[in-house]
């Protein structure tokens, strides 16, 4: 557990009022199972990229309430002006230590709608209190990692840098966005705090203000080259872009004479396709074919794709606002649902389903696990099963026929019965009794994992527009139980 302030207040008020309700009814220590997932992949994509687990683990490990935090809760009142929380409940919160079990998809795992990314099992009140903060962490980082993966795919091997801190939702949001963007495939960030915290390569040179602070552009470039000769990417569009390129080249010649090389130039406005082609010609003709052309200015996967189709000569893409804020979809819409409950370990589990007039909001009951089936290095299908029932097994009569997990679909899916098919269970033990049981990888290791696993997805699934659907099946016994619970609840 970290030495920072306990994380209990990182929640919505209704989590605490429910917690007091369970405590007052003697239900606080009933054993509960919750699952965290999402109902639709973001950006109309075919997948999402799981991210945020490391921070989620720290949050769980820090679950508790300090004296000061409980003193604040004691000041809250109900609509009658009386204290909202019972002193006995607040005292109980002061003694609470995290004892939950957490199983989760490792960060960097491609994931899909209606399957759990994370499972929490333990005392009902603890599992309930974690809901809001776990959703905050996993929702945002998964969203940004997914966006980054799409932008990196659009760049088709070119380097992508994350430049979004100044437009992020606060400094903490910027820190999380930089981490998630790196995991999604960006090669570096402009965010120095993120670079220090997560060992991410940090990149950056100068802004328009540097140029404007000098009497002219030549003096600005010369001054920067004098001060930082080993970090020269000249921003050339403060005034006239192509004249700026000429001035950068003139300074690059002087740098070379002093034993240094200009890294490149940056374009931040105008017709990036036309300007980059003209700049490339100038740089090549002047003897600087290795000088990179960096582009920025409201880039995303769609604009990068269009620029490449237009023949832009851009080597490095600096992506800011549209990545760090997930500009076209600012929330993942993840959910955290109770799926099983029992009074104690001697009692049978009561599995439950959350119904809705909106079918996509109907939850799946059980103590769930996700098994991914692959053939020839390509992911084929995911199966969601209840660990108490066990995974689906092919029989002598042939392969198992399962139902799509999508509540809007009645499709049946055939689970392959093929010796060439390999499988892996995606939810791995992370915490047991509130303590870590695994070593969490670095951001760089997660980034490499994501790169490998994204390459294993079917090609059609990775399209930006109208991606092929990826099949996610509900194991037959779970599907039958879900239908039974729906009928019983509706009756």
From TrEMBL:
Gene3D superfamilies: Aldolase class I (3.20.20.70), nicotinate phosphoribosyltransferase (3.20.140.10). Keywords: Glycosyltransferase, Ligase, Phosphoprotein, Pyridine nucleotide biosynthesis, Transferase. Residues 9-139 form the Nicotinate phosphoribosyltransferase N-terminal domain. One of its GO terms (molecular function) is nicotinamide phosphoribosyltransferase activity. Residues 422-482 form the Nicotinate phosphoribosyltransferase C-terminal domain. Pfam families: NAPRTase, NAPRTase_C, NAPRTase_N. Belongs to the NAPRTase family. Catalyzes the first step in the biosynthesis of NAD from nicotinic acid, the ATP-dependent synthesis of beta-nicotinate D-ribonucleotide from nicotinate and 5-phospho-D-ribose 1-phosphate. This is Nicotinate phosphoribosyltransferase. It comes from Enhygromyxa salina. The gene is pncB2.
